[in-house]
């Protein structure tokens, strides 16, 4: 299993710091788990392969392109700094 951990500052609260851990088996396109923490609380979830396909279709985006964008936003934070915004709700 592979994992990444990134620090994020959501646009909804730019003074706050959150930590986002993403874990996956084969590749992000087969589904992944997430843990979001503010240092005091943690929230967990999973995204299935079917949900990824559904989101790509909803956005009228090629599935492979959608998975590449997910990688950039969720696990390549340093390379994509400033290109993606996060909102916590």
Describe the fold and architecture.
This protein has 89 residues and is α+β, with helices and mostly antiparallel strands. 25% of the residues lie in helices and 31% in strands. The protein is built from two helices and four strands. It has helices at residues 49-58, 63-74; strands at residues 2-8, 18-24, 31-37, 42-48. A four-stranded antiparallel β-sheet has the order 1-2-3-4. A hairpin with a 4-residue loop joins strand 3 and strand 4.
Please report the distance between the alpha carbons of the first and last residues.
28 Å
Question: On the 0-100 scale, what is the average pLDDT?
Answer: 90
Strand order of the largest sheet: 1-2-3-4
The tally of structural domains comes to 1
Can you give the helix content as a percent range?
A: 10-25%
Report the sheet with the most strands, covering strand number, pairing sense and barrel closure: 4 strands, antiparallel
Oligomer: single chain
Segments where pLDDT lies below 50 for 5+ residues?
none
Instruction: Give Rg in angstroms.
Output: 13 Å
CATH topology term? Dna Repair Protein Xrcc4, Chain: A, domain 1
CATH class: Mainly Beta
Number of helices: 2
CATH homology superfamily:
DNA double-strand break repair and VJ recombination XRCC4, N-terminal
Give a topology summary.
Blueprint (H helix, E strand, L loop, with lengths): L1 E7 L9 E7 L6 E7 L4 E7 H10 L4 H12 L15
Antiparallel strand pairs: 1-2, 2-3, 3-4
